Amino acid sequence: MAEARVAVSEPKLAAGQMQEGRDTLRDAARAWRKSLVRRFFATRNSIYNGLWPTHIYNLMVTTGLVTLLLFWHPAWAGGFTSRLWHLAEVLNIGDSIPYTIRVPLVAIAFGLIFFILLLYLRRYALRALLSYKGWMYQPPRTQSWTTLAWGLLVKIVSGYKPSTYSCQAALPRMPVPPLRRTLDQLIDSLTPLYGQDSGQVRDFKRQAAEFEKSIGYKLQRVLQLKSWWAPNYVTDWWEKYVYLMSRSPLPINSNYYILDHSYFKPTSNPAARAGYIVHHLLRVKRMLDREQIEPLLIRSTIPVCMSQYERAFSTTRVPGEDIDELVHYPSSKSKHIIVLSSGHYYKVDVYDSDGAVLSTRVLEDLFQWIVDDSKQHDISQSESRLAALTALERTKWAKIRRQHFLESEASANKDFLATLESAINVVSFCSDPVSDDFSERGKMGLHGNGRNIWFDKNANLIFHPSGRFAVHCEHSWADAPVFAHLIEFVYTAEAANPDKIYDSGGRCLPDPAAQKPIRQPERLVWRCSESLANEIDDAYQFSLKNNADLDLVVRDFNEYGKGVIKCFKVSPDAYVQMVLHLAYYRMHGKFALTYESSMTRLFLCGRTETVRSLTQSACDFVLAMCAKECDSGLRIRLLRRAADEHQTSYRNAMAGLGCDRHLFALYVIGRGLGYESEFLKSTLTLPWILSTSQQPQQQLADTPSCDLPEFRDCVSPGGGFGPVADQGYGVSYMLAGDFRIFFHVSSKRSAADTDSTRFMDHIYQALRDVKALFDGHSTAV
């Protein structure tokens, strides 16, 4: 078989584009300076976070005031100063030390003691305050005086301008819910699916009672012990057993995608678009490295956990035969990106000699050179399909990786893999034409063309020939809102000021002060043996088969949005959930076990919890909608009752009172202690026929409203994922402002009863029918 040879040929850039022949001493001085800058920010942030919510100024002010009192000797402070001198005796600060020195020493000693007490008092007070979750159950406009006073206390106790990770030490740990509550919640969620008097429900009730009496409380006590010392009682197990131990292929089954602007396209030049996106995303990375991104706050008061942001860049999921491993590379060892074009892989250093991010125009020139250069080199079909290996089942990919890259006689293969896996991100230029159709853009974002996405990397930035762009994210390192938050910085700046980014020809505007690249892009070396080529070809066919099986439909419902829904006095999220239940029942004639993802980041190291949105109230509303003789007033009342119940369930999940993560943790403990529970196994393996998720929108506090006419076409449609169950649907939706809702519906063509297009049509009809209930009726009905 052909071998992909090294090709470090000269990029055909403008004269003087590359800097060569640098002075060794100057390079050493710059490297030393950059190292000092990194250490400065790391040390400063470590001190700042360690002192938060207090500040070093508290120590300085306290020390200054005490020094002033000791020198001044006011009569009203006589008792206080005498105690301070007693402290001096305790600290053995005797008369042999001059008075002018003794006073500052006593002041510093007292100030330090007071500062430490204040630090822990404020930190634990804030943790206790944040443990209160009653605010979630009160709408902002109707909060009680108690909740308003609580919010004021949180603001007073909280520190001033926290850095990205400052709030971590003050976040409460997620509590373990009562066992009885969890079991009751589980049975209640299964009753509408099977029926109150069905044999399945009776069996579940019996098994739950037996589990509670036998090993339930023993497992509960062990779990409570873990919750006292672990940052989070379930997150580490969730990451390990749900993500890293899963042997399924990553595309469609685990990873997800994010699309760019819905209709707005600032340029049709993919190299220019990549130059801007990569440049701005690297600036966001630098802000994150320096902890200059403020933590997200709910209602401008309550902080959420930011721990997932630590692995947003330079992270790779390394396949293992039994379990995968997440490897994160520090910024000092990850200063490059990998660019994939026409099957060739290029290493591109993205910082100049002063450590600054390369300008947008310089990056554009580099990317354009790579696209052109990659077409000049012959490559076999097998070599161009290398990325298909990452789409395999994890155990198989791990064995191929070990045999052909780690233990191969060709050392270039090991070096190639090390360079790729340590990259900040992968940038992929797709040569296949992709239309502006949402569904086609979504499919290319979720699984690509079978050879243009390295699925193990934390993020792949995919650029189409039309200038469109999508992000493909590996899921185990963080949940979707994290990278959506980071990419929102990029989207917002691009939509707000396109004329300041691109010229009239669609190219990035040059920056006269921009530094030039340190070195030219390097086309990477790896050896493709005949046996490896066969593995790659098999992987590519496997990937194409899975891609063809995905039925993905993405649409923009623009007849109304959450602005109208709020007028109905119904939670927009609950409204959409009821619409999904109605659409599914009309299409399939039955109800489906439904999963909606909710975040638990109000707690330290929290990730997600399941909201079981199929309730008896939801079923009553759906049946009323399908009944021929039922007046609109009754249907509206049933809708509001079901929506209120759903909203309460969602809030309970956010407050750590869901049942699924609790049951999962009990199952893990039981297996670890040698117990087999058929009850836990059977309930946790029930298929989620409807797997749903509402996407966050406008997480940045200062983002211009997407409801403004000039920005309505700039909003991103969000992203989506594959179905969790082979016979089910994956539904993600974004309530994009007051005027539209984006839906992403996925299913498998091989399933006998699913059809994403038909289901989307039913969703649209259900949206129209539910809105029609309120036509001619007062919203107070």
UniProtKB/TrEMBL annotation:
<dbReference type="GO" id="GO:0016020">
    <property type="term" value="C:membrane"/>
</dbReference>
<dbReference type="GO" id="GO:0004095">
    <property type="term" value="F:carnitine O-palmitoyltransferase activity"/>
</dbReference>
<keyword id="KW-0012">Acyltransferase</keyword>
<keyword id="KW-1133">Transmembrane helix</keyword>
<keyword id="KW-0443">Lipid metabolism</keyword>
<dbReference type="InterPro" id="IPR042231">
    <property type="entry name" value="Cho/carn_acyl_trans_2"/>
</dbReference>
<dbReference type="InterPro" id="IPR039551">
    <property type="entry name" value="Cho/carn_acyl_trans"/>
</dbReference>
<feature type="transmembrane region" description="Helical">
    <location>
        <begin position="56"/>
        <end position="77"/>
    </location>
</feature>
<keyword id="KW-0276">Fatty acid metabolism</keyword>
<keyword id="KW-0472">Membrane</keyword>
<dbReference type="GO" id="GO:0006631">
    <property type="term" value="P:fatty acid metabolic process"/>
</dbReference>
<dbReference type="InterPro" id="IPR000542">
    <property type="entry name" value="Carn_acyl_trans"/>
</dbReference>
<feature type="domain" description="Choline/carnitine acyltransferase">
    <location>
        <begin position="174"/>
        <end position="763"/>
    </location>
</feature>
<dbReference type="Pfam" id="PF00755">
    <property type="entry name" value="Carn_acyltransf"/>
</dbReference>
<protein>
    <recommendedName>
        <fullName>Choline/carnitine acyltransferase domain-containing protein</fullName>
    </recommendedName>
</protein>
<dbReference type="GO" id="GO:0005739">
    <property type="term" value="C:mitochondrion"/>
</dbReference>
<dbReference type="InterPro" id="IPR023213">
    <property type="entry name" value="CAT-like_dom_sf"/>
</dbReference>
<keyword id="KW-0808">Transferase</keyword>
<comment type="similarity">
    <text>Belongs to the carnitine/choline acetyltransferase family.</text>
</comment>
<feature type="active site" description="Proton acceptor">
    <location>
        <position position="475"/>
    </location>
</feature>
<keyword id="KW-0812">Transmembrane</keyword>
<dbReference type="GO" id="GO:0009437">
    <property type="term" value="P:carnitine metabolic process"/>
</dbReference>
<feature type="transmembrane region" description="Helical">
    <location>
        <begin position="97"/>
        <end position="121"/>
    </location>
</feature>
